[in-house]
Amino acid sequence: MFDRLLFPTDGSxxxxxxxxxxxxxxxxxxxxxxxxxxxxxxxxxxxxxxxxGDDADGDGSERRRSDGERFVSDAAARASQSGxxxxxxxxxxxxxxxxxxxxxxxxxxxxxxxxxxxxxLSRLLLGSTTERVVRRSDVPVLTVRPDAATDLxxxxxxxxxxxxxxxxxxxxxxxGGELAAxxxxxxxxxxxxxxxxxxxxxxxxxxxxxxxxxxxDAVDAASDTAAALGVETVRKSVGRDVSIHDGxxxxxxxxxxxxxxxxxxxxxGFDRYMLGSVAEKLVRTSPVPVVTVREPxxx
Length: 299
What we know:
Blueprint: E1 4-8, H1 13-29, E2 32-39, H2 58-80, E3 86-92, H3 95-105, E4 110-114, H4 121-126, H5 129-136, E5 141-144, E6 158-162, H6 167-183, E7 186-194, H7 204-228, E8 234-241, H8 244-254, E9 259-264, H9 270-275, H10 278-285, E10 290-294
Parallel strand pairs: 1-2, 1-4, 2-3, 4-5, 6-7, 6-9, 7-8, 9-10
Antiparallel strand pairs: 5-10
Helix pairs in contact: 3-5, 6-7
C-alpha cells in the first residue's frame, strides 16, 4: 500500500508521541520512512554596526539547524530498531511549503503529522503547519492526535469513508478502499444528511427526502468502488444529523471506527479559515486518525 512515508518532526512531545505509530505503519508496509525537519529560513545577511557582513543571528540559526539534525537522527534510531529503512533531511524555509514540496518531489505516498486538536477563533485564524499542509498537499495526509497515539494499532480494522458523491469524496473512497483491501479492513461507506440546513423551510421534508436519495446513491457508488478494489466487507449507512460533522463523530463512536478517510477541496483564504470544512473540523476534533485526500486537479 505504501512505499514511502513522510514524517515531519520538530522534536516536540507531540511528534515524539506519534512517531511509534508512524514506524508501525512503515514496518507493516515495508516502506521507507522519510524523516524531515524544517529549520527557519536563512536570515538575510546585513552589515553589523562594525561594518562586518556576518549574520546577526547566525549562531542561533545554525543552532536550530543542529537541533533539527538531532531530532531526525534520534527519530531514525528509533525507527531502525524496528527494521525500518530511513531517509533523513533537514531543510530551511516555510514549514508547510517545504513539507508539501518535499512530498511531491520525492513521490511520497502518505504524509503523517500530529495535530494539537485545538479549537477556537484564534486557532481558525492562525491555523497551524498541519492544517496548512492538509489544505495544500497533493499527497494524502494522515493526522494523528498525540494524546490518542498510544492507543493506536496498525493495520486498522475499521475504516470510515464519508461520501457525498463528489470528486474529492470519490478520491477518498478510492484511497480508503485500497487501504482496506490491502489490510483486510472493513470499509464503512457513510453519508450524512444535514437536517438543520433547511430551518423553517416548508419544503424541508421533501428536500431531505431528495438528499437522502442522493446520499443513498453516493453510498452505493462507494460500495461498488470498494468492491472493485477487492474490499471483502463493506457496511453502508445513510443518516441524518444537525450537522455532517456531528453525524460522522457519532458514527465513529457507535461503530468503533479506527480511521477516517475524508476528501478535501483544499480551499484557502480568509473565508476558508472562518468557515472551515467538515474535513478540517474532523482533523481538529476526531478521536481517531484522519486521512485527508485532496480533490484531483485537472491536468
